[in-house]
Amino acid sequence: MKIERARVIVTCPGRNFVTLKIETDQGVYGIGDATLNGRELAVVSYLEEHVIPCLIGSDPRRIEDIWQFLYRGAYWRRGPVTMRAIAAVDVALWDIKAKMAGMPLYQLLGGRSRDGVMVYGHASGEDIEATVDAVGHYIDMGYKAIRAQTGVPGVKDAYGVGRGKLYYEPADAALPSVTGWDTSKALNYVPKLFAKLRDTYGFDHHLLHDGHHRYTPIEAATLGKRLEPFQLFWLEDCTPAENQEAFRLVRQHTTTPLAVGEIFNTIWDAKDLIENQLIDYIRATIVGAGGVTHLRRIADLASLYQVRTGCHGATDLSPVTMGTALHFDTWVPNFGVQEYMRHSEETDAVFPHDYHFADGLLYCGETPGHGVDIDEDLAAKYPYKRAYLPVARLEDGTMWNW
Ligand code: GCO
Ligand code: MG
């Protein structure tokens, strides 16, 4: 069996997606997601110029060997562009293998560990009152877990606020838009949101919050402490994680559970955090961290330390990643939660899929493979549109972490 052809499909049904389609000499094909929000074309070029030529003629059943070839063989390891390209190949090959086996992907991984996958949705509002209403809306939709982000008075376009939309879409401009940040304002305001949420809805739902890399370790520790009475499911990306040691300080000061990893590419980004039990949830996902083959290694390491998974699932991860992650989540023994921001109708139409939402859980389907396809004719109707993520600046103009 041979790989005969591989193509990259770029489409923008409301937002950009990069998809790799691998076709075999036996008529079976597989697809993988390679979207890197705001830097999409770098991955397109990496795949087209440097990966696809190596794939043609190789045996698509040799998933592990092809992974190692692309990782070790490049000499230049890791990084978001490389690892997304590898992920796209890996996912397309798992799709092919599962189709050939006539099984949904989760069966090949080891079978079902649970019936459905608990997901969390994104509630947000311009201020506390609006965010409390938005959380109520998610409760009405049946969500068991809800992330809450509020605008902060005096901060321009605070992170995570949908501005009237059910979900927010940050990559919104042909050049990066400038948002604001003020740590002390957020430190005073965010705990008030969670106090109000618990006051209004009680403690029956899981609440989550994303710090989006904004706080220094000691500020993150302060936030974690202030949030303790409201029993969050997790506080995410409370401080940047390039220095994994930074989490030790946060950990020593608060029992609020910590999650990190949506920008991690490999097990090496998470190794110290996991082994030192500095986090509770690892957020690496299929497209970001080298596909099913590598994410499984991360999850297995995490399970030794009782760290659970919480796969990233923002709208910039295509339905191909969502579908694959759901098979992964259905199998992985140390599952925590899955992020689910929902895609637009246009996106869902370009990527027909068999997963569905019911009562706060997502269910992967039983179609052989990962259960997500691409309608190429429809995809062709939405040409690529350059869109950047925003940047963040402090009041005095200093660049900050967005
Ligand atoms: C999340 C993330 C996203 C990112 C986005 C960037 O927790 O869902 O922080 O919202 O900002 O994926 O492309
Ligand atoms: Mg996040």
From TrEMBL:
Stored SMART domains: MR_MLE
Keywords of the record: Carbohydrate metabolism, Lyase, Magnesium, Metal-binding
EC number: 4.2.1.8
Species of the source: Novosphingobium chloroacetimidivorans
SUPFAM superfamilies membership: Enolase C-terminal domain-like (SSF51604), Enolase N-terminal domain-like (SSF54826)
Molecular-function GO terms, alphabetical: magnesium ion binding; mannonate dehydratase activity
Top-level enzyme category: lyase
Protein name as it appears in the record: D-mannonate dehydratase
PANTHER family, sorted: D-GALACTONATE DEHYDRATASE-RELATED, STARVATION-SENSING PROTEIN RSPA
Cofactor(s), names only, from the UniProt record: Mg(2+)
Pathway(s) annotated for this protein in UniProt: Carbohydrate metabolism; pentose and glucuronate interconversion
Similarity field: Belongs to the mandelate racemase/muconate lactonizing enzyme family. GalD subfamily.
InterPro entries: D-mannonate_dehydratase-like (IPR034589), DgoD-like (IPR034593), Enolase-like_C_sf (IPR036849), Enolase-like_N (IPR029017), Enolase_C-like (IPR029065), MAND (IPR034587), Mandel_Rmase/mucon_lact_enz_CS (IPR018110), Mandelate_racemase_C (IPR013342)
Gene Ontology biological process: amino acid catabolic process; carbohydrate catabolic process
Reaction(s) the record says it catalyses: D-mannonate = 2-dehydro-3-deoxy-D-gluconate + H2O
